[in-house]
Design brief:
The structure holds 3 protein chains of 3 kinds. By secondary structure, chain A is α+β, with helices and mostly antiparallel strands. Chain A is built from 12 helices and 14 strands. In chain A, the strands form 4 sheets. Chain A has a 5-stranded antiparallel beta sheet. In chain A, strands 11-12-13-14 form a 4-stranded antiparallel beta sheet, with helices on both faces. A 3-stranded parallel beta sheet of chain A has the order 1-3-2, covered by helices on one side. By secondary structure, chain B is an alpha+beta fold. Classes of the chains: A alpha+beta, B alpha+beta, C alpha+beta.
C-alpha cells in the first residue's frame, strides 16, 4: 500500500518528458496511474522517478480527420474516449471498449496509452489496436518513430517503447467498410478479469475479406491468427460457416493456468470469443 | 529535502498549501495531513472505491493518485457535500430513508459516485445505476437499497430533514 | 437476584406496540453519511507509533534465527519484538480444545511459521512507511518444511505436523450419533450414496480491515484498547491471563466499525501483540491491517469436506436421515475453533424431520490461514450439505423437488420441535415460506421458460432452505471440551435517566452496522412511553459503561434477542423506579401512576403530575424531599442482564438445547447457463425470511439483502485458493474478486413473522442468514445441467467448473441402491 521513496517531475513538454525519462534507467512515465500506482504499491517494480505526462496538451487530444482516420493522444482517458461524439462516429468500437473498462473512477483517469504500454495480457485495448492495424507513435531522443500495433506488444508488460522513450499517440486508419467485433469471457461481470478476448475487423460484401483476427488474455501479447484469417477470406458470412472455420481453434494457442482458470478452459474460451467476435464483425 | 514538493490544493472550497513527499498517496494526504477522515481505505489494489473523491469534477479513487498530482486541483470529499452542521443533501437523505447505510464504511465513496452519476444522468435506469457504482464495493447491503436510494433521489421522492 | 420471570418466558410484546415493528430510519446514518464516523484508523493517541507485522512467506517453516538489529538501529523505530521475546513476557493463550490440541503453545507472535502470513516479528515506528521499511530489514532465517493443505490429508499420521507438542494435526474428533442409522440404512427402500461434497473457503471481507490502537499505561495500569474487534469480552478473557493483567485493566472501546461478519472475532493475538509492544516502547501502538494482509491472515470461513454420505429414503419420499464423515479445516491455529465442531449440530437435521443422523466429525489443522466464525459459522456448511442431499434424492429417485421438501420439512404443527440431539426449533412455517419463495420467482413461468428452451442456453431453477440458529448456549462448548467453564448466554444493558430527565442507554454489544442505536431506542421508547428521539443510545462499545457480561459482543445472530431484551429489561427496571419515585412525590399508590409522554401522573391527571426532569431532580439533586426508603432504593441508573433459559448440554450423549431461536430462510432462483462458457446469469432471485417479530423491518430486510449478497458472491465469485505448497494464490482484491453492484441481481423478498415462544419480545436473532444462496444456486445449476449430469458437489461454481460439469466431468460419484 505504501510506495517506496521516489522522485517526481511534471515536465511541460513531450521533449522535456523524454529527457526526464532518459535521466534514469528506472524512470517511468505516469499518466492516469490506474495500473502503475498499484504496481508501485505492491513494490513489484523498481522505480526511482515518475515523470507525470498526464497534463501534456500534445497527448490529450482526439483528432478525427476528414478521411475518418483518428489520432488519439496517449494520455486521453477512457472516459474522454467514451464521451467523444466524433470518435464514436469514426470508430465506435474504440469508444465502446473504452466505456466498458473497469469502473467509472478508473475511466476518469486511466488512459489509452497507459493501457497499451502496460500491456497486461488482460488489457482491453491491445487486441483492438492490432485488429485495427493502428500505428503507435513513439518519441525518443532521436525523434519520432512509428511502430505497428502488431509489433508493439511484445509480451506481458513488455512493449516496443524502450527506456527513455514515450508513447505520444495512437493512429488508427479510417474504418471505411470495416465491421469490428470484440468479445470477452471474464470471471464475472462484463469487465472483470478477462480469461479470453478476441477482436475481429473485416469487410463483408457477400463474403468476408481483409480479416484481421486477434486473440489475447490467454498468456502473453495479443496474437493474430493468420491461418484463420485465410480461411475466412472469401467465406460466406454466415454463423454456421464461421463456426466451422473456427473449429479446433483453441488447440494451437498458448495459454496459462492460474487461480482464475486453467489453460484448457482459456483455450476453449478463445475459440468461443474468436467466433463471437467474427460474427459480430459481420453484423456491423 | 529530496522528493519533497510544495503543492496547492483546494479541498471542499478551502485552499491548502502543504509540502508532500512524491510517494505519498492522495488518500493519506487527505486523511492524515488534512485530517479529513470521511474518505476511507478498504483495500490496497484500487478495487474497493472507499477512497473515492472528486478531483476537478472527475470521480477518482484517491488511493490511485499521488498527492503531488493533485497540485492545483479542486477536490471534493464527503465532508464537502454539505457543511458539518447542515442537513443532509437530498441524495444523502435518500440513503437514510431507503436504509442504504449499514456499517457506513463504503458510504462516503458511494454517495460521491452516486452524485457523479446523477449530475450526468438525472434519470438513470437500474442497470445504469449499478454500472455507475461498480467501482464501489459494499459488503453489507447487497447493493439493493443503495440502488433504491439513488433511484429515489433521481425521481425526487425524498423527504427533507433527518 | 434475577426474577423467575426469565425462566418462564414472560412475554413483553403487549408493552411494545408503538415503535417496535416500524421501519424507522436510523439515527446512526447522519454521521456516517457526512463522513463523521469514527473508525479505528480515524482514532489517534498522542505519541502513537505505527506497527507493521513481519509475516512468514512460507506455509511451514522453522525459524532458525531472527535478527532485528538493523531495524532497531533505524532512526524513528521505537521498538521491535519477536516471538521469543514475547514468550518471556506473557503466557500462552488459553485453549478451547481438549487434549491433544490443548497442548498447543501459542504466543501473540509465532515461534514457528505455520501458514503463509503467520506473524513472526513486529516493528513500531514513527510512520507507517518507516515501520514497513524497517520490517524489511529484519533478518529471518527460515528452514522450510513440507506443508499440508488438505484437511483429510492432515488427519493422516504421516502428514507434516504443525504443532509438535500436539503430536498430530488433530484439533478435535468425535462421533455424533442419534436415532439408529444402521437400522435406517438396512430398512430403507432406497439408499442414495454420495461420494463427496465440499464446502469451500471464503470470507465475508468486511470493507474495513481489522485494526487496533492499544496503549498500555504503566502509570495507571490501564490497557486502553480502541479496536473494531467484534467479541471484545471473549478476547478479553483470553488475553487477560496471557498478559498477566486484571480484567478491569483492559478497557475496550470503539465507536464505528466497517463490518464484521464474524471475521473480526479472533483478533486477540494481534491486540495482545500491540499491548506488549506498547508496554515495551512506552507509547500507544496503532495497527490497521492492509487488505492483502487481511486476506492472507485475518481469517477464513470453515472449509468442510463430507465423505461417504449415505441417505436412507423410503418409497414415499420420507428421508430417514444420513450418515457421513466430515473433515473440517481449522487452518494453522485454533483461535475460536474447534467450537465449529459442535456449532453445526444446532441444526443437525437442517429444516427436516430426519430422525437418524450419524456424523463422524474430524477437525484438523493445516498450513493455511486460521478459521474464523465467518457469517453463518459452521451451520452454513452443514445446511448446504443437507440441501445437496435433498436435491440429489429428488433428482435421482425422481421426486418433485418442491414436494419432497414440503413432505420432509418440519411442519407448522410440529413446533416447538425437538431435533434428534435435543435442540428445540421454536416456530416457523417452512412450507409456507417455500410457497412464497416460488411465487417470488414465478416458479410456473420459470418451468415454462425452461421447457421452451433457448439456443445455447439452459435454464435452471433452484431451491435452498436453511435456518439461522441464533443465541447460542455456550454450554455446547463442553461437548467439545467438558472442562470448559462456559454455559448459557446473555447480554447486558443500562438505561438511565440523566440529571435533567434524559434517557440514555448503553449496551454490551459491538455493532457493525446492524442499527443497534436505532432499534434499542425503539423498544426503550415503547417501554418508557416516550419518542425514540428522546432516547440516546451509546454508539459502538465501551467497557467503561459496565454494561457487559462474558458473552458481550455482536455475533451469532442474537441482538434482537439478547441485546434488545437486555435493553427492555433495563428500561422496565427504570420504569419501575420512575413510578416508585412518582408515587412518592405525588402521594399515591404506584398502581395509580400513569407514565406517558415523558410525564408521570396520577391516573392521567395533568394537574397532578411530575415530568421526567422532576423525577431526576428529586433523586440526583433534591433527595431530601423523598422518604428515605424511596431515596435509598432508587438510582435511576438501571442495569439488566438478559439471560436466556438454558441448561448445560450433556457432553456424553452430545444432547441439549444448543440455541434459543431458529430463523428460517427459503430462497429460490432462476438461472441461465451459457452452454459454451459455463457462465451463470441469475434471472430471478427470491428470498423469504422468518425471524419472528421484527423490531425494524427495513433493518431486517437490509440484513437479508446483505446475507444474500454474500452468499451469491461466495457461490459464484469468491473462493480462496492455495497452491499445494500452501501459497495463497488470491491474496488481494484483484484476484479475490468480491461482488460488485453488477454481480448481485435485484432481490425479491418476502417475509413471515412466526414469533418465538422462547423470547420475551417474540423476536428471533437473524443477520447471518443460513447461506441459502449457496444451496439455491447449486440447486439451480444442477437443474440446468439436466438429468444424467454429474453432481454439483462443490459450494463454489466458477464458470470453468460449470463448463466441466456440462461436459460430463465428474468429481463426485452418486449411486442409488434400491430394494
Amino acid at each position: 500500500m505504501l510506495l517506496r521513496s521516489l522522485e517526481y517531475e511534471r515536465p511541460t513538454s513531450t521533449q522535456a518528458a523524454v529527457e526526464a525519462l532518459r535521466s534514469s534507467r528506472r524512470a517511468r512515465a505516469l499518466a492516469g496511474g490506474q495500473s502503475l500506482i498499484n504496481v508501485l504499491k505492491h513494490r513489484l517494480a523498481e522505480c526511482d522517478l515518475l515523470v507525470d505526462i498526464s497534463r501534456l496538451e500534445e497527448l490529450r487530444s482526439i483528432d478525427v480527420a476528414v478521411d475518418g482516420s483518428v489520432r488519439i493522444g496517449a494520455a486521453v482517458t477512457y472516459d474522454e474516449l467514451d464521451n467523444s461524439a466524433s470518435l464514436r462516429g469514426a470508430h465506435p468500437k474504440l469508444a465502446e471498449v473504452a466505456g466498458g473498462i473497469a469502473d467509472q473512477q478508473v475511466r476518469c483517469r486511466g488512459t489509452i496509452g497507459g493501457n497499451a504500454c502496460y500491456s497486461d495480457p488482460a488489457s482491453n485495448f491491445p487486441p483492438l489496436l492490432v485488429a485495427l492495424d493502428a500505428k503507435m507513435e513513439i518519441l525518443g531522443a532521436d525523434g519520432l518513430r512509428s511502430v505497428s500495433a502488431e509489433e508493439f506488444f511484445h509480451g506481458p508488460f513488455d512493449t516496443a517503447v524502450r527506456p527513455g522513450e514515450l508513447l505520444i499517440a495512437i493512429h488508427v486508419p479510417a474504418r471505411g467498410e470495416l465491421g469490428v467485433g470484440y468479445s470477452t469471457v471474464t470471471v464475472a461481470d462484463a469487465d472483470s478479469w478477462a480469461l479470453a478476448r478476441a477482436c475481429a475487423a473485416l469487410k463483408v460484401n457477400g463474403t468476408i475479406s481483409g480479416a484481421r483476427v486477434v486473440v489475447s488474455a490467454l498468456a502473453g501479447a495479443p496474437v493474430r491468427l493468420p491461418e484463420l484469417e485465410e480461411r475466412l477470406s472469401g467465406l460466406e458470412a454466415s454463423p454456421e460457416a464461421i463456426r466451422e472455420a473456427c473449429a479446433n481453434l483453441g488447440a494451437g494457442l498458448a495459454a496459462v493456468s492460474d487461480v482464475h482458470a486453467s489453460a484448457e478452459y482459456r483455450r476453449e474460451m478463445a475459440a468461443v470469443v474468436v467466433r463471437r467476435a467474427i460474427v459480430e464483425a459481420t453484423e456491423r | 529535502m529530496a522528493g519533497a514538493h510544495a503543492i496547492k490544493v483546494t479541498i471542499n472550497g478551502e485552499r491548502y498549501e502543504r509540502t508532500v513527499l512524491a510517494q505519498e498517496l492522495l488518500v493519506h494526504f487527505i486523511r492524515d495531513t488534512l485530517g479529513l477522515r470521511g474518505t476511507h481505505i478498504g483495500c490496497d489494489t484500487g478495487n474497493c472505491g472507499a477512497c473515492t473523491v472528486r478531483c476537478d469534477g472527475r470521480l477518482i479513487k484517491s488511493c490511485m493518485m499521488l498527492a503531488v498530482q493533485a497540485d492545483g486541483c479542486e477536490l471534493t470529499t464527503v465532508e464537502g457535500l454539505a457543511p458539518p452542521e447542515a442537513e443532509l443533501t437530498p441524495l444523502q437523505q435518500a440513503f437514510n430513508t431507503e436504509h442504504a447505510v449499514q456499517c457506513g464504511y463504503c458510504t462516503p465513496g458511494m454517495v460521491l459516485a452516486a452524485s457523479y452519476l446523477l449530475e450526468r444522468n438525472p434519470d438513470p435506469s437500474e442497470h445504469e445505476i449499478r454500472r455507475a457504482l461498480k467501482g464501489n464495493i459494499c459488503r453489507c447491503t447487497g447493493y439493493q437499497n443503495i440502488v433504491r436510494a439513488v433511484r429515489a433521489a433521481a425521481s425526487g421522492e425524498v423527504e427533507v430533514g433527518v | 437476584m434475577t426474577r423467575a420471570v426469565v425462566e418462564t418466558i414472560e412475554s413483553v410484546e403487549h408493552e411494545l406496540g408503538r415503535y417496535t415493528g416500524r421501519s424507522l430510519p436510523r439515527t446512526e446514518d447522519r454521521r456516517l453519511l457526512k463522513g463523521q464516523g469514527q473508525f479505528v484508523d480515524d482514532t489517534w493517541m498522542f505519541r502513537q507509533g505505527y506497527v507493521h507485522f513481519l509475516r512468514s512467506p512460507h506455509a511451514h517453516a522453522n525459524i532458525r534465527r531472527i535478527d532485528t538489529s538493523k531495524a532497531d538501529a533505524l532512526p524513528g523505530v521505537y521498538a521491535t519484538m519477536t516471538a521469543a521475546e514475547m514468550a518471556e513476557r506473557c503466557e500462552p493463550f488459553f485453549r478451547i480444545a481438549p487434549d491433544p490440541a490443548a497442548r498447543i503453545v501459542e504466543y501473540p507472535l509465532a515461534l514457528k511459521a505455520r501458514y503463509e502470513g503467520d506473524a513472526v516479528a513486529m516493528v513500531m515506528a514513527e510512520t507507517r512507511e518507516l515501520a514497513r521499511s524497517a520490517a524489511e530489514l529484519i533478518e529471518v532465517e527460515y528452514e522450510p518444511l513440507p506443508a499440508v493443505v488438505d484437511a483429510v490429508e492432515a488427519a493422516d499420521p504421516r502428514s507434516p505436523v504443525l504443532h509438535e507438542e500436539v503430536g498430530s494435526n488433530l484439533a478435535w474428533q468425535g462421533i455424533y450419533d442419534y436415532g439408529d442409522i444402521d437400522w435406517a440404512l438396512e430398512n430403507a427402500d432406497h439408499v442414495v450414496r454420495i461420494e463427496r461434497l465440499h464446502f469451500h473457503r471464503f470470507s465475508s471481507t468486511p470493507l474495513e480491515c481489522q485494526g487496533a490502537l492499544v496503549n498500555w499505561d504503566l502509570g495507571t495500569g490501564q490497557v486502553e484498547i480502541v479496536s473494531n474487534i467484534q467479541f471484545p469480552m471473549f478476547a478479553s478473557q483470553v488475553m487477560g491471563p496471557s498478559l498477566g493483567v486484571r480484567q478491569d485493566q483492559l478497557l475496550w472501546r470503539y465507536q464505528d466499525s466497517g463490518g464484521g461478519f464474524g471475521n473480526k472475532i479472533a483478533m486477540y493475538p494481534q491486540v495482545a501483540a500491540l499491548a506488549l509492544i506498547s508496554r515495551k516502547a512506552g507509547r500507544p501502538a496503532k495497527w490497521t491491517e492492509y487488505r492483502s494482509e487481511n486476506l492472507l491472515s485475518c481469517g477464513m470461513g470453515n472449509e468442510r469436506t463430507f465423505l461417504d454420505i449415505e441417505v436412507p429414503v423410503m418409497a414415499d419420499g420420507t428421508i430417514l436421515g444420513f450418515k457421513l464423515r466430515a473433515f473440517d479445516d481449522a487452518g494453522a491455529y485454533l483461535h475460536y475453533e474447534p467450537l465449529g465442531a459442535v456449532i453445526w449440530s444446532q441444526v443437525t437435521p437442517g429444516c427436516y424431520r430426519f430422525k437418524h443422523v450419524h456424523v463422524d466429525y474430524t477437525e484438523t489443522m493445516t498450513n493455511k490461514c486460521p478459521t474464523v466464525p465467518n457469517r453463518g459459522y459452521s451451520r452454513l456448511q452443514h445446511l448446504w450439505m443437507i440441501e445437496r442431499i435433498v436435491d440429489t434424492v429428488a433428482r435421482r429417485l425422481d421426486f418433485d423437488p418442491v414436494q419432497l421438501r414440503k413432505q420432509n420439512y418440519v411442519q407448522p404443527e410440529d413446533y416447538p420441535y425437538e431435533t434428534p440431539n435435543g435442540c428445540v426449533y421454536d416456530s416457523g412455517d417452512l412450507p409456507g415460506a417455500l410457497d412464497k419463495a416460488l411465487s417470488l420467482i414465478d416458479y410456473d413461468g420459470a418451468r415454462e421458460l425452461q421447457k421452451r428452451g433457448s439456443a445455447g442456453k439452459r435454464i435452471g431453477i433452484g431451491i435452498g432452505s436453511t435456518l439461522d440458529s441464533g443465541t447460542n448456549n455456550f454450554g455446547q462448548a463442553r461437548i467439545i471440551n467438558p472442562d470448559l467453564p462456559f454455559s448459557g448466554n446473555g447480554e447486558a444493558a443500562t438505561v438511565k435517566l440523566d440529571l435533567y430527565g434524559e434517557i440514555y442507554c448503553t449496551l454490551g454489544t459491538s455493532p457493525t452496522g446492524q442499527g443497534h442505536e436505532t432499534t434499542a431506542a425503539q423498544v426503550i421508547a415503547d417501554i418508557l412511553r416516550v419518542e425514540p428521539g428522546d432516547v440516546r443510545v451509546n454508539a459502538g462499545f465501551n467497557k467503561e459503561h459496565s454494561a457487559y457480561v462474558g458473552f458481550s459482543g455482536t455475533y451469532a445472530s442474537q441482538f434482537a434477542v439478547t441485546g434488545i431484551n437486555a435493553a427492555i429489561g433495563a428500561a422496565r427496571r427504570l420504569r419501575a423506579e420512575i413510578i416508585k419515585v412518582g408515587a412518592a412525590v405525588l402521594g399515591c399508590e404506584e398502581a395509580d401512576i400513569v407514565l406517558d409522554g415523558g410525564v408521570a401522573s396520577y391516573r392521567g391527571d395533568s394537574e397532578r403530575a411530575i415530568p421526567l426532569i422532576g423525577i431526576a431532580n428529586v433523586v440526583y439533586a433534591n433527595n431530601a424531599v423523598l422518604p428515605p426508603e424511596i431515596a435509598d432504593s432508587v438510582s435511576l441508573n438501571c442495569r439488566y442482564v438478559y439471560r436466556p433459559p438454558f441448561q448445560v448440554p450433556d457432553p456424553e450423549t452430545k444432547r441439549g438445547n444448543l440455541t434459543l431461536t431458529y430463523a428460517i430462510q427459503v430462497h429460490a432462483c432462476v438461472i441461465e447457463l451459457d452452454e459454451e462458457t459455463g457462465q451463470v446469469r441469475i434471472l430471478q432471485y427470491g428470498a423469504v425470511d422468518d425471524c419472528g417479530r421484527r423490531i425494524n423491518p427495513q433493518i431486517v430486510e437490509g440484513q437479508v439483502h446483505g446475507a444474500t449478497g454474500h452468499g451469491i458472491a461466495a457461490a459464484l465469485h469468491e473462493a480462496f485458493n492455495y497452491s499445494p505448497e500452501g501459497q495463497l494464490l488470491n491474496a488481494n482484491f484483484y484476484d479475490y474478486r468480491v461482488a460488485t453492484a453488477l454481480d448481485i441481481p435485484e432481490l425479491k423478498t418476502d417475509h413471515i413473522e412466526s414469533p418465538s415462544p422462547f423470547t420475551p419480545n417474540g423476536a428471533k436473532g437473524m443477520g447471518e442468514g443460513g447461506g441459502a444462496p449457496l444451496a439455491t444456486i447449486c440447486s439451480a445449476i444442477q437443474d440446468a445441467l439436466g438429468p444424467d449430469a454429474p453432481l454439483v458437489s462443490d459450494s463454489h461454481n466458477s464458470s470453468e467448473r460449470v463448463w466441466r460439469l456440462l461436459r460430463g466431468q465428474e468429481s463426485s460419484h452418486v449411486d442409488v441402491s434400491s430394494r
